[in-house]
DNA sequence: CATGAATGAGGGTTCATTCAT
DNA sequence: GATGAATGAACCCTCATTCAT
């Protein structure tokens, strides 16, 4: 939740919201926040975080610059809130992707089951990628690193279950390569659309399939 | 968009006209340009292209801002020229990476002959890398496009010579994937050192080898 | 200049009309006004008039900005009303400082009777002091002028009653000097405490006594 | 001297100014700085430091906002530079005012010799007063306190030489009162002009004369 | 009347670019 | 050519004030 900016140090909390009164006003505020975040996502996607101007975000949300600052104390806060929301959603999604049941499938199916939802999420939320990539905000960069570390751990886990004899270092290297390949492909996927996008998705799976197939020879299980 | 000052006939400053009259003047100009490009490379590496200010570049080159604009019509032109030079140098310096003689080798040797110098070059010229970033984000500036297009064309050329029957689109897709994989791996390579770096270099070659081997079945030639 | 909203006939909100119909409504209004003025006093003390924001005052009063503007047409009006009230209270609370009975006393007693309550009042109401600052600097706002004019008029009144023959200009000059000396001393008094504070109070009386004694030679009356 | 603002950390000093070359350019810069400081003084006097906008200062100096920032890194730096210059001049002037030879004069002459130059200085440099009074800048506030402490020490010195038997505390109290009275009167003096200003100057001397005369009874010397 | 979101002009500041010298 | 001052649009952000609910 974004913190309301305040004139000095917050001396008196607005009123403690005695009950669930004034749902209408709150509703409007929530709507505005959503509106602004959507606008910010759009602008961040178009121009990246650094080049996105708060005025442009406000304009995109069809409000005045002042309104934006009623809900977010500064430009960074917008990115952090947006990044946080997307991150939460991404985590939920990842939880549904790395399921034990997937590990029994053959590699092509495993790739489909794993990559498709993640790609879909990124296609629907292109701001996620833009933010994680190039915000330069320490908070977000850290979140990005945590996200990356989490993903890496999951990939390593899967890999370990497939080739339990490999050295840990090797597992890490391969996992990092997989993630890197994925990110690079995502760039191409997001930059294209329609048949071309489908082609890049297929190509990504081809790369990973050919890369990993020799690694996973023995019949495996968990 | 900034308007180019200067006369319309010469869209790029001196640069061309390899040898002509008044070599003294030219020499000084060339030196200035080199100075400025070196400064730009340094600043781009430290801050990235977007955050680099022309004043900072001029200061790093120990000239005045006015002087900078005597040789480059705007900030973007600096990046384009720098990227172009690096591309050309990459070509000239490292045993003519993309040259015909390499095309006759089998894939592993080709990859070695191609990737090793390029990796070495990128380790020595981090500015090249700094200039390539920002892809994926639609808010791409022209210099990125030109630089990327240059690299892409070369890779496509090689690919075409290996599989002359493939559809142009497919060539492009595969080339883009190759470049993407290369960039992603370069991240890992540059971020590590010693044995780990070597491991990532090997892994990169493995990925590309497995990816491209099925593509290049038929005996090829140029 | 901000335009006053509201009907033209009543330039200042409720405040007047001491008792009339609808006492319930008025009571609530009065309470709100008192609330707001207390908040304003607090904020003015902390930050000074110029740096005090209407939002901060409203927050301190635990009302919304809109409510504030229901009772005061603008920020300046708050200061004017606050200054006026303090002036009036200074008058009413402390044994009617500037009242006729004091004028018959000899100067030392008059000074005691006048200064002691005023000093005490200022120690208890630092907002009064905060509002008086900014004099000397031409960029004076209206509320300062009004407040200052109110005080000045009272001092002039006393002086006139003591030396009815003096030129009005001289009266004004001397009165301004008296006020100035008082303000300067108040700084020292408020900045010290205990014996030192008492010493400065005594010194202030000494200064004024010696300054005014020659002025007030003839037996006086009102 | 104001520091030139710079884009990042100052990595390379502009060039070390090989010789006394380019005196023309330097001259222009110096002139601009003087122009800007004069404009700032004017604006600070009119509106006080806090309310003075850099745009207003630039406009008063008839330059663009950007030019202002070529010579001063921010608004505060302007005030600090201006305050520093005035302070230096004030110190020089004070050195010429508190001379031993003045101590032998009778009080009226001493007051004339002391007050007249200081008043004149403040009338010619009204910005000095505005800045010392209400800038709120730590640096300037501190300088103001140092100035005040220096003045206080001088006044105490004079007083001690006049009444060597007084307790140190009393000397300090009286000196503070004198300074306070002086400052308060300066407000009135600066706010008026012509005959009125003269009247306030005379009144200030009257106040101090009557205040101090009884203190200085015994024939004195140092 | 109360609320709190909405407004928009204005403030300090930056920087790509131009111009007088 | 070189210099560095000059420009001005744009940026992020604030706050007195207004308006819909």
Care to describe what's here?
4 copies of one chain form a homotetramer. The two termini of chain A are 40 Å apart. In chain A, helix 4 (75-97) packs antiparallel against helix 6 (107-124), helix 6 (107-124) crosses helix 7 (126-134) and helix 6 (107-124) runs antiparallel to helix 10 (194-212). Helix content of chain A is 74%, strand content 0%. The first copy, chain A, has 10 helices and no strands. Chain A has 222 residues and is mostly helical. Chain A has helices at 23-51, 54-60, 65-71, 75-97, 100-103, 107-124, 126-134, 138-162, 168-191, 194-212. Chains in contact: A-B, A-C, B-D, C-D. Chains A and B meet through helix 1, helix 7, helix 9 and helix 10 of A and helix 9 and helix 10 of B. Chain A binds a DNA duplex (21 and 21 nucleotides) through helix 1 and helix 3.
Which percent band covers the strand fraction of chain A? under 5%
Chains forming the largest contact: A-B, 37 and 33 residues
Order of helices and strands of chain A: HHHHHHHHHH
Mean pLDDT across every amino acid position of chain A: 86
Oligomer: homotetramer
First-residue to last-residue Cα separation of chain A: 40 Å
Helix content of chain A: over 70%
Number of DSSP helical runs of chain A? 10
- Count of beta strands of chain A: 0
* Cα radius of gyration of chain A in angstroms: 21 Å
Main structural class of chain A: mainly alpha
- Poorly predicted runs of chain A are 6-11, 13-20
Shape of chain A: elongated
Q: What about the largest sheet of chain A? A: none
């Amino acid at each position: 939740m974004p913190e309301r900016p305040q004139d000095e140090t917050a001396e008196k909390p607005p009123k403690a919201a005695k009950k669930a009164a004034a749902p209408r006003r709150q509703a409007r505020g929530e709507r505005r926040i959503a509106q602004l975040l959507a606008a910010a996502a759009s602008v961040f996607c178009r121009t990246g975080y650094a080049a996105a101007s708060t005025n442009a975000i406000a304009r995109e949300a069809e409000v005045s610059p002042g309104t934006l600052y009623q809900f977010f104390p500064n430009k960074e806060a917008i990115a952090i809130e947006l990044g946080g929301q997307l991150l939460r959603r991404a985590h939920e999604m990842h939880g549904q992707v790395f399921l034990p049941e997937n590990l029994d499938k053959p590699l092509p199916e495993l790739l489909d089951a794993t990559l498709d939802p993640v790609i879909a999420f990124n296609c629907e939320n292109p701001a996620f990628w833009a933010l994680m990539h190039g915000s330069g905000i320490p908070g977000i960069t850290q979140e990005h690193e945590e996200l990356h570390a989490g993903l890496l751990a999951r990939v390593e886990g899967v890999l370990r279950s497939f080739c339990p004899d490999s050295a840990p270092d090797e597992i890490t290297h391969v996992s990092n390569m997989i993630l890197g390949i994925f990110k690079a492909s995502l760039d191409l996927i997001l930059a294209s659309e329609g048949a071309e996008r489908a082609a890049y998705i297929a190509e990504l799976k081809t790369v990973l399939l050919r890369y990993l197939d020799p690694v996973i020879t023995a019949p495996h299980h968990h």
